[in-house]
Write a structure and sequence with these properties.
The protein is an alpha/beta fold. It contains ten helices and seven strands. The protein folds into two domains: 156 residues, Alpha/beta knot; 66 residues, Helicase, Ruva Protein, domain 3. Helix 1 packs parallel to helix 2 and helix 8 packs parallel to helix 10. It is elongated.
Amino acid sequence: MAADRPPPPPAPVVILVEPQLGENIGFAARAMLNCGLTDLRLVRPRQPWPNRRAWAAASGADRVLEGARVTATTAEAVADLRRLYAATARPRDMAKPVVTAAGAAAEMRRFAAGGEPCGVLFGPERTGLDNDDVTRADAVLTVPLNPEFTSLNLGQAVLVVAYEWLGAGDLTPPRVVPMPAETRPANRFELENFFAHLEEELDASGFLRVVEKRPVMVRNLRNLFLRAGLSEKEVRTLHGVVKALSGRRRGETG
């Protein structure tokens, strides 16, 4: 039996400081759940909470909103966290490390795996975080965008950070070619049988007539087909193609 995979590290907490609109809280919750984040904290939301517009905008991310914790101060919202990032696009006149969303995600994965709970502060939609809240953070988190236009709405900002967190732990290959259910990957015997058939017909046609070049040409052809990751069905089709072409050639010359 394969060894069980270790559990993933706990996801970061999202803290929205003075969010102005219920809809934006809902959009943020939707972005969080898209990426597996569920711990939402609200510091002094401007509109009464719970807010029906937040539920409408969340499009089903109800458990994030139902579990949201409302606090009167940022200090209360972050009290149990060991690492804290302040999401802001504005330059701050303070000596504080600056990381990208991708860099912060990698750091938070490492911290969380070591038992250090993490969180990200997001400020009000109009003004962003004030300097006092930025000072609470270990680092400023920023997203490299067009320097002439760096404006993100609250839901977008949360999604970028949450997506980078998800991607930092994603083991999915960047490109996958699914194998159809009615076939399977070709095995080595089937591939070698096809290569032998192909080379036999290429010899007969004269394509491999230059003796000193033949080994290189054969290797190149083999590598070409091996890179394709052929299925058993595709190998049978190629056999048919080679047979049809060789039969046509013989019919024309016979």
